[in-house]
Design goal:
The complex is a heterodimer of chains A (836) and B (145). With 836 residues, chain A is an alpha+beta fold. Chain A folds into six domains: 6-141, HPT domain (Four Helix Bundle (Hemerythrin (Met), subunit A)); 150-260, Histidine kinase CheA-like, P2 response regulator-binding domain (Alpha-Beta Plaits, 2-Layer Sandwich); 292-356; 360-539, Histidine kinase-like ATPase, C-terminal domain (Heat Shock Protein 90, 2-Layer Sandwich); 544-686, CheA-289, Domain 4 (OB fold (Dihydrolipoamide Acetyltransferase, E2P), Beta Barrel); 691-835, CheA-289, Domain 4 (OB fold (Dihydrolipoamide Acetyltransferase, E2P)). Chain A has 29 helices and 33 strands. The longest helix of chain A is centred in the middle third of the chain and has 30 residues, at 292-321. Chain B has one helix and eleven strands; from the N terminus they run βββββαββββββ. In chain B, a hairpin with a 2-residue loop joins β4 (48-54) and β5 (57-63). With 145 residues, chain B is mainly β. The chains are: A alpha+beta (836), B mainly beta (145). The interface between A and B is medium-sized, with 26 and 21 residues.
Chain lengths: 836, 145
């Protein structure tokens, strides 16, 4: 009983304090809006009370005192003795902050150094009713409170379920009684004859110490006897000033012990309250607090399993290649492997889920912060949070907090205009800031949107030039999107004035660093006058990640999929050299390219075949983008990140290793270092002004074959290219209409272009395809073969001469001659018209 | 570093590099493997051959030939990797072949004299065994410089 070691519970206690403080924050904000909401007040009161109870039981006197005063305030609010005013709310918030600081100092072990007196006085000043004071004093005098630890509660619970009664016996000896310790011992003996003493307060050691023992005691007893019998027994003992016995109901054990004052004051009210509280408790599913390290350990084991499982699948695959499918044993292996795969993936998911917490925990800190920031900045903000229930890894929750805080502050301070300005602009006076979280495949996306003034790229350019980050020349060439990313540069701020909240230009740098650290990507969308959206994309977890496997030379590398934005194939002609750096043209934007194989110093024994096209993996970290040229795409796979160990250290561009299905080791590419080294080239883009114009004049066409001729159709018109599906014939349809096909639930007409062009009928071949073309009503056209996507400069196109193509000429809008190939460009609108 | 008195009664794993014999204290050796496929890592110390997958753990492998500036001979069936306990992690050492596990008599072992400069920090004792001299390696220091 006496050896209740608090240090074991410190972690639990701190967690609880966190939780309760968050509840307080949230509920007080509610209270400010709706001061008369009884439920809110009840919640606040309960949280404050829990705080008081647990800090007292942990022996943190100062915290107890502080929370106790706070509780008194809430009590008065509850009894409608004081009004909820903004100034009161501010004082309460200050007090909550103080408790938070106390929590920190408990961790540092410096709690005793804290000076809480000013706050206590401040709180006392709010007491309008002297009576509370008195009752408070009385409370101090009253008997010891009973605080049970988990073990004792457990014993009680068990006892109760076995049909025992549990009582809390409070006894106060005469003040002038001599030999209090002996009395106490007698009492204890008497009670223990009646039943089992689960706990005694103060501890037996204190009771035995004549000097320390004040004559107040409290026992928690488990007995088969009734309350009356106990009362009888106690009344036979002498020198007892007063005694009280309260029955402890089963439900009460789950609640924090209440102080005796309240027990007496509100016996009736309490039972109601407890019932309510009980109902609430029941809703919360039972939980176990687990040490994070244990979870980490289990997670590692699951990681090992995942590796073995991929190996097993690999072996199975090799068996089947060897043509052993027919044998029974193989079938069993097949079964087992499949089942194992399923179980392991579920295990992995489950493990991951245990590490996941709803982002609510994090989000709940923000309303308070937004309120404070808005107040400071003199702005009115409607703050909306969506997707609170979105779950993510607990390590991520900690890490992502700072970036979000910065982005929110920025949104409020810079983004949202002052109420007057907003009204002038015809916007509602209250600015709107939306914080959203949602899942997208294996990522979590967090977006922060404001409806403020937006980011002005010109301003950023100006500021960047002033800071000497770029030259005026460069700024002129830069497009707005790229300019926007400059806000992530340290020291750059477009705010006209530095305020208390932001404007020093470091915040965004912090945001960027944090997100980079988490392998995340950040994106900005902003319209001047309409507002800004920041989008952060993060991996769900850090230990097991999905990755893209590529080959550089003959080595397999894994690139974290969260960083992969797209995979493209670039023609040699699209790769140019700017400032000694290879860049690729992707949809009109210039992308720096890295030949990773050369960069890593890998040599291939195979003599290099000159490839016409290169695989380019476009990767991004935070705001930067780089194209990595790879030799081969292997596929994507779940990988477990393993460190290379301190012996090897951290080689350039490699962040770790992973074990593949066949037992071999693949290295994990450190995207952030690649991007850091090469991503900076972005700002030098468009050096050659002609690049862009050239791109603009080029058009892409999907080319296909019909008989010997090659035709082209604008790529924008093409929705999909599919293998010919089964086609349902339509009665009394024109010749060229083959029938209807089903494309993902939509019925589309399919046209046989051969018939339309009066070409001889041929059976569908292996290469036959249906091109789905976008029109008012999507339409499929059956062609012999789809050849490629061709880029044709508008200048190299000729208009057809009527004579050559007779009847069809109206359908052909151009002819392109490239390297002895003739491609006829179809005028699709005309074609459609002619069909009708 | 092992004290001199520990030599007596202790077993040693004796291996060869270019016909020269060396030995480890047996308690420093975790296990001995046939050479699996080694994944090289670009951009690291050239003495490190690469990493291997040892039952799900990634273990770096040091090429002792390169470390001792000896010519690297062709691969051989008898090549082995000796896994030893490093300071923070296990490390694999590539050797030509494992010769034996043996005990040395105390009178046949002598510490390396101080005026021997070259491999002073690597070899701590010389032991005579059947007319051959075996260098006992000091694992604490022999890590790649």
């Amino acid at each position: 009983m006496a050896e209740f070691d608090v240090s074991n519970y410190l972690g639990v206690f701190l967690d609880e304090v966190d939780e309760q403080l968050q509840i307080l924050d949230a509920e007080i904000l509610h209270l400010e809006k709706d001061p008369n909401n009884v439920k809110t007040i009840e919640n606040i009161f309960r949280a404050a009370h829990t705080l008081k109870g647990s800090s007292a039981s942990m022996g943190f006197e100062k915290m107890k005192e502080c929370t106790h005063h706070l509780e008194n305030i809430f009590d008065q609010i509850r009894q409608k003795k004081i009004q909820v005013t903004p100034s009161l709310v501010n004082v309460i918030f200050d007090c909550i902050d103080l408790i938070r600081r106390m929590k920190e100092s408990i961790i540092d072990g410096t709690l005793d150094d804290m000076d809480i007196q000013p706050f206590i006085e401040q709180l006392e000043a709010l007491h309008t009713n002297q009576a509370i004071h008195n009752s408070k004093l009385e409370q101090v005098q009253l008997a010891e409170e009973s605080k049970l630890d988990e073990y004792q509660k457990d014993v009680l619970r068990n006892g109760l379920t076995l049909g025992h009664n549990a009582f809390e016996i409070k006894i106060q000896l005469f003040k002038d009684s001599l030999m209090k310790s002996v009395r106490a011992l007698l009492i204890q003996n008497a009670i223990s004859e009646m039943g089992e003493i689960i706990a005694s307060f103060p501890s037996v050691e204190v009771m035995e110490n004549e000097d320390a023992f004040q004559g107040n005691m409290c026992f928690v007893v488990l007995t088969m006897r009734t309350k009356e019998e106990l009362l009888d027994c106690i009344s036979q003992l002498s020198e007892i000033e007063k005694s009280s016995i309260t029955e402890i109901s089963k439900t009460a054990i789950f609640n924090e012990p209440t102080s005796p004052k309240e027990q007496k004051e509100a016996e009736d009210a309490k039972s109601n309250q407890k019932e309510k509280a009980n109902k609430q408790k029941k809703k919360i599913s039972s939980t176990v607090r687990v040490d994070v390290e244990r979870l980490e350990y289990l997670m590692n084991l699951v990681g090992e399993l995942v590796i073995d499982q991929t190996r097993l699948v690999d072996v199975r695959g090799r068996f089947s290649q060897m043509g052993m499918n027919t044998e029974d044993e193989f079938e069993i292996l097949d079964d087992v492997t499949n089942h194992l795969t399923r179980v392991i993936s579920e295990l992995q998911e489950g493990m991951m889920k245990t590490r996941m917490l709803p982002i609510e925990q994090l989000f709940n800190r923000f309303p308070r912060m937004v309120r404070d920031t808005a107040r400071q900045a003199g702005k009115e903000i409607d703050f909306v949070m969506e997707g609170k229930e979105t779950e993510l890894d607990r390590t991520l929750i900690e890490e992502i907090s700072d970036p979000i805080i910065h982005l929110l502050r920025n949104a409020i301070d810079h983004g949202i205009e002052s109420p007057e300005e907003r009204e002038k602009l015809g916007k509602p006076a209250n600015g709107r800031v939306v914080l959203r979280a949602f899942h997208e495949e294996n990522h979590i996306v967090i977006s922060i949107t404001d409806d403020g003034r937006g980011i002005d790229p010109e301003k950023i350019k100006k500021a960047s030039i002033e800071k000497g980050i770029i030259t005026e020349e460069e700024a002129r060439k830069m497009n707005d999107e790229d300019a926007m990313f400059f806000i992530f540069k340290s020291g750059l701020s477009t705010a006209e004035k530095v305020t208390d909240i932001s404007g020093r230009g470091v915040g965004m740098d912090i945001v960027k660093t944090h997100i980079e650290k988490l392998n995340g990507v950040i994106d900005i969308q902003s319209t001047i006058g309409k507002g800004t959206t920041f989008t952060i994309k993060l991996p769900l977890t850090l230990a097991i990640i999905r990755s893209l496997l590529v080959k550089f030379g003959n080595k397999t590398f894994a690139i974290p999929l969260v960083n992969v934005l797209e995979i493209i194939r670039l023609n040699k002609s699209d790769i140019q050299i700017v400032n000694g750096q290879e860049v690729g043209l992707v949809r009109g934007r210039v992308l720096p390219l890295v030949r990773m194989k050369e960069r890593l110093g890998l040599t291939t024994e195979l003599d290099e075949k000159e490839k016409k096209r290169e695989f380019v993996v476009v990767v991004g970290i935070a705001e930067k983008r780089v194209g990595i040229i790879a030799d081969k795409m292997v596929g994507n796979q779940e990988i477990v990140i393993k460190s290379l160990g301190s012996y090897i250290g951290s080689p350039p561009f490699i962040s770790g290793a992973t074990i593949m299905g066949d037992g071999s080791i693949a290295l994990i590419l450190d995207v952030s270092s690649v991007v850091r080294e090469h991503g900076t080239v972005l700002q030098e883009q468009n050096e050659d002004g002609s690049l862009k114009t050239e791109v603009n004049n080029e058009k892409q066409f999907v080319t296909f074959k019909l008989d010997a001729e090659e035709y082209g159709i604008e790529i924008e018109k093409v929705k999909d290219i599919i293998l010919p599906p089964s086609i349902t014939k339509v009665v009394e349809a024109p010749d060229e209409l083959l029938g209807l096909m089903d494309l993902r639930g939509k019925m589309l007409p399919v046209i046989d272009l051969r018939k339309r062009f009066n070409l001889p009928d041929v059976p569908k071949g292996k290469k036959s395809r249906v091109i789905v073309v976008e029109a008012e009503e999507d339409i499929g056209i059956l062609v012999d073969e789809v050849t490629q996507v061709l880029k044709i400069a508008e200048t190299s196109m000729e208009t057809p001469q009527e004579a050559d193509y007779s009847k069809l000429s109206s359908l052909i809008k151009g002819i392109s001659k490239t390297e002895e190939r003739i491609v006829l460009i179809l005028d699709f609108e005309e074609l459609l018209k002619s069909l009708k | 570093m092992k004290g001199f008195d520990q030599v007596d009664g202790n077993q040693f794993v004796v291996f060869s590099l270019n016909e020269q014999l060396y030995a480890f204290f047996i308690e420093e050796v975790v296990e001995i493997l046939r050479v699996p496929s080694i994944t090289s890592i670009p951009g690291i110390n050239p003495n490190i051959e690469g990493v291997i997958n040892l039952r799900g753990n990634i273990i770096p492998v040091v090429n002792l030939h390169k470390r001792f500036q000896l010519p690297t001979p062709d691969k051989n069936k008898k090549n082995r990797i000796v896994i030893v306990q490093g300071k923070t992690e296990n490390i694999g050492l590539l050797v030509d072949k494992i010769n034996m596990v043996t005990k040395f008599d105390e009178e046949h072992v002598e510490p390396v004299s101080n005026n021997q400069t070259l491999e002073e920090d690597i070899v701590i004792y010389f032991a005579k065994h059947k007319d051959q001299v075996i260098g006992v390696l000091n694992l604490d220091n022999h890590h790649v410089s």
